Amino acid sequence: MTSGSFRFDRFLLDPADRRLKRDGAPVELNARYLDALALLVREQGKLVSKDRFLDEVWRGVPVTDEALTQCIKTLRRQLGDDAARPRFIETVPKHGYRFIAAVEDGAGRIPDTPPLAAPSPASHYSWRECLILTGAGTLGAGIAGLLGGIFYGVAGASQPLQAGTGAVSILLVLLALTLVAALTGGAGVSFGIAAAGFARNDRGLWSAFGGALGGALIGGFVKLLGLDAFDLLLGKSPGDITGAAEGAMLGGAAGIGCWLASRDGAFRLRRSMIAAGLVGGATGILVPLLGGRLMGGSLDLLARQFTDSRLRLDQIGAILGESGFGPLSQIVTAGLEGALFSACIVGAIILGRRAVGGTR
Questions:
Q1: For the whole model, what pTM was predicted?
Q2: Same domain, yes or no: 244 and 291
């Protein structure tokens, strides 16, 4: 390509004048990042390797890969691009980056390198990928349920037991119950998040909305089915156990966590899981503060509604200085549940993206 000015989408890049404009308004970029953008645009449609960036932009100055990652992240933010479904800068995992938008100069489209048509954000997405990510997220939720079941099972089994009740039986029952609940809720949340990949824009918003909707639908259905089952079999409803509202909150938190994970296109597993865990933990804490219940609170409610129940989670309250499974116990366990649920779903979806090449 020539070295004059370049037009793409709403932008005008003039490397000689050291300016980038959007709809005539200057876009702030430091000199190094502007050079990186100019290199990408000049090589429109071609792979620009990491070594070329280091040689032609940093000109031999020793820098880490993080410097290039931060450069690309800043360019995407200034261009309004999305790493997960790019319109301008596409990541080629382990190799470099490619500028994929159509580029023109003052005389029209540049002839020497036929520009690639800028794909719609959802053009690389398929139902196959959506289902793979749904399955991955569901497995992640299952891992969270497994860990949660062990925690509640150990707490329940550590109480003084009545004759005929074994610690292993309590552990297995709570493990199975928590695992089923996590897999069911995780499937709805993960599908909602994965389906957001078909959105053309604002995928962060759609990811949060999809996760919340999936969690609400599954939570509401399971609660309705559970209450009806208890009423039918035992003639008594257990009360206000976890349901649609709690599912929506946790699902939305997981969706926000997935959006945060895709912000820089690197999909770093540990950092993304930590971020998702923090969002999910904060949301989990909010649930009991607003009068809701997650798994721990629901189990305690079930145990107390049915006087012949042998299940007690008072050991958790004792650790926190409460005489039973009180408000503090609900807040702490809900925070842990939310953090674990969101972190495991986001981590599993990231691994699923890597498996299908989703780090484009």
A1: 0.66
A2: yes
